[in-house]
Amino acid sequence: MEFLIVIAIIVALIVGYFCLGMLLKLLLQWWLPLVCAGPLLILAFGFGWTGAIGAVVGALLLIGFTQNWQESPTYLALEAKIDKAFYFDDV
């Protein structure tokens, strides 16, 4: 029985390590929209039609900023480090 518990703990650690890597990669890719979504929603619902139009324009700009971030050398270097640290290149 102890052997099965040890195997289950090892499998759980491997799965947890993989999930941590995926979470870090997700946050690296989408940190800007996650940070800006709240203020855009407050703008959209708090200031009527003007705020809604401003939030739509802000969301469109945010898409462009996110695309630029994901093409930047800094992002690509950080992504490569995460891929190497969590062995995502092996898949």
Protein described:
- The protein is mostly helical and 91 residues long.
- The chain has a domain at 29-86.
- 90% of the residues lie in helices and 0% in strands.
- The chain contains three helices and no strands.
- It has helices spanning 2-46, 48-71, 73-85.
- The two termini are 32 Å apart.
- The model has no long low-confidence stretch (mean pLDDT 92).
- Keywords: Membrane, Transmembrane, Transmembrane helix.
- The chain crosses the membrane at residues 6-28, 40-65.
- This is L-lactate permease.
Topology, please?
Blueprint: H1 2-46, H2 48-71, H3 73-85
Helix pairs in contact: 1-2, 1-3
Summarize the structure.
This protein is mainly α and 91 residues long. The chain has helices spanning 2-46, 48-71, 73-85. α1 packs antiparallel against α3 (73-85).
Average predicted confidence as pLDDT: 92
**Number of beta strands:** 0
Could you state the order of secondary-structure elements as H and E? HHH
Largest sheet, strands/sense/barrel? none
- State the end-to-end distance: 32 Å
Amount of helix: over 70%
| SS class | mainly alpha
Q: How much strand content do the residues show?
A: under 5%
How many helices? The count is 3
Large-scale geometry: elongated
Low-confidence stretches: none
Radius of gyration: 20 Å
Protein name: L-lactate permease
Transmembrane segments: 6-28, 40-65
Keywords: Membrane, Transmembrane, Transmembrane helix
Search tags:
elongated; mainly alpha; 91 residues; single chain
